[in-house]
Description:
Elements: H1 8-19, H2 22-44, H3 52-64, H4 66-86, H5 88-94, H6 99-128, H7 136-164, H8 167-184, H9 197-203, H10 207-214, H11 227-252
Helix pairs in contact: 1-6, 2-3, 2-4, 2-6, 3-10, 4-6, 4-7, 4-8, 7-8, 7-11, 10-11
Amino acid sequence: xxxxxxxxxxxxxxxxxxxxxxxxxxxxxxxxxxxxxxxxxxxxxxxxxxxxxxxxxxxxxxxxxxxxxxxxxxxxxxxxxxxxxxxxxxxxxxxxxxxxxxxxxxxxxxxxxxxxxxxxxxxxxxxxxxxxxxxxxxxxxxxxxxxxxxxxxxxxxxxxxxxxxxxxxxxxxxxxxxxxxxxxxxxxxxxxxxxxxxxxxxxxxxxxxxxxxxxxxxxxxxxxxxxxxxxxxxxxxxxxxxxxxxxxxxxxx
Length: 253
């Protein structure tokens, strides 16, 4: 049987498959905008008027991280683990679909969804929220960071799903990671600096912490020392890579 290669039709199939997962739409579109609105309203009531715009911008940057985390860690993990548990990849392989092509289609579809979420998020905050006008370089830096974080979470979700090969275990672990990381990186209304010392050390190993707390400092331009941010990316990438290699080893067995 002739192997079917990666195509636009495969990506379109995965996008239609994604539309059946309402959890991805809620956590990726509704949840970050709703959280941003509610937290900013609650916080601004206790902040002097001349500092409110910067505070709202800081909240917006924090809430933007929910999109890659929800789309890749929860959305991709839930969808892929269900398929693995039901043996869908094996059946697709028997019908002539290459596994690499299927994975590329899934990745492309999830990044399309993430792009739509970012556009909606940007339009909502420009229209409704009082956010500081950013420098172009800062916007580019944020977008690159969000897509890089998304890629890490996608690989992490893929690895966890292949290690446990059951939806219940995969989703439970990823949901726990999701909320733990939200707490550590300051997305739940408590700043990282207010956490116990050992939790602050854990937070510094996550690149999301620096996006949430530091990016507001150069949002309107200026310089920033990126080395701790890059080191956090390297550390998280190394952990993710180890889990991916472990999942491939388990799968081969």
